[in-house]
């Protein structure tokens, strides 16, 4: 098998004295969609934040596309081609859709033009002059993803992209992620909506107590129903 695009080895992370990650191991291969599952507080968000370097107190190895991300300053991590969409979305609420797209966090080679973004997100084109505050939750989520796509990333880390969204919008986000996958995007996401995760993911990692308990492909969901029931209650 080829080298993983993202390899995480024995990742520990702390908030002050609070030891949140206890040695996370995971791989994401190019073009895959991988979902982190687990109950509240097990360290899913912290895993994404520690990969990006947003939790500074961490040890272990994080390799992206052959580059060690641990020790790189935050702005250099973003330039490696990996982008993070936080649960709170990270758009400029007082700026319009257009302005949010014109002012991406980083502009790199291979980033999508604003017109390409609007072709992918026609609803954002219709709302291009609306400020972030006037957008629905789904539109805000799409704008947050769109801003990261402007930067030319090869890999997206998404934290609960369907949180608080109506089923029809959840479906739209699922279609969008499927389109991005077809274009070769690699995706690691945290998701509480198990049905959504089961529809879009190639593989899962189940987390408990700041560690990965088990990893398995979507085809083996049936063999893991007891474990999922025990750990997630689904
Ligand atoms: P959730 O779905 O509730 O976000 P999670 O699996 O993503 O859960 P994390 O948010 O990564 O879990 O939290 C892991 C642990 O770290 C929890 O014990 C949490 O209380 C703690 N934690 C998270 N953020 C902070 C913070 N900013 N300061 C201190 N402790 C934190």
Structure description:
- The chain has 234 residues and is α/β, with parallel strands linked by helices.
- The chain has a domain at 97-152.
- It contains nine helices and ten strands.
- It has helices at 44-52, 74-78, 97-102, 114-120, 122-126, 137-150, 167-182, 194-200, 225-232; strands spanning 6-15, 18-28, 33-37, 58-64, 67-68, 82-85, 155-159, 186-190, 203-208, 211-217.
- A six-stranded mixed beta sheet has the order 6-7-8-3-9-10, with helices on both faces. The protein has a four-stranded antiparallel beta sheet with strand order 2-1-4-5, covered by helices on one side.
- Strand 1 (6-15) and strand 2 (18-28) form a beta hairpin.
- The longest helix is centred in the last third of the chain and has 16 residues, at 167-182.
- It is globular, with a radius of gyration of 17 Å.
- The two termini are 32 Å apart.
- 38% of the residues are buried.
- The mean pLDDT is 91.
- Bound molecules: adenosine-5'-triphosphate.
- Adenosine-5'-triphosphate binds at residues 15, 18, 20, 38, 40-46.
